[in-house]
Amino acid sequence: MSSVSRRTNTIVEFLGLPGVGKSTLSHRAAKALASEHPRVMEPIRRIDDRASPSRILSKGRFAVEQHVRRPWTALTTTRSLRAANAGSASDRIRVAFNLHYVAGVMAHARSVSGVTLLDQGVYQGVWSAGLRASTNWSTLIDRFDVILSRTAPDLVVLVEADMKTIMNRLRSREDGDTRFAPDSQAFDRGIRGYESLKNRIRSTDTAPASIVIENETREDLSSGVDRIAESIHSIHN
């Protein structure tokens, strides 16, 4: 009698514009999953909660791990960032570091068992890389195809809200994302970038599975967590 093997690890990335509630949804989903899946990990959240020196060291370790585990992918990613002409030199360094860091986290997650939830991942990293780039989104995403295909999650949760809600949330933040300020060129470009990434994920056969979660109200948050947990449960089991 044949038996169906159980998936040892499942990686979930939350993708969306700043202000849609990716981190909140991710953390609530982790709590909802904890009773059925003993190993539910939120590595990005855990690192972000650390004091600054420890946080930087942890991110650096994962960035180095990405270069060690996948040197060709890391080199191709660096070349793609240069070709994208993404803002100033300091912007490119910061974006490159973050992209290698999240890719390293995802590569590490493949080596351990459990469910890994990421409120930042490679798709969000590519979005950040393109925010101040001079290249059009379609070309830019093509250039990052190597890292997107080789470091892909199993499920992408596409988190959305209407523009008025997003702008209100961003304006109410004390630590708002200044790269993505409402009523700026970057804001409009960021919206186009998200739609381009969403279209790529939803229309490409080799892309990971995806679900769209509307996150406007408390009721949306609750129902969204339930849908995410159900989707993860069906993939992981």
Automatic annotation (TrEMBL):
GO terms for molecular function: ATP binding. Keywords: ATP-binding, Nucleotide-binding. This is ATP-binding protein. The keyword Nucleotide-binding applies. It comes from Halosegnis longus.
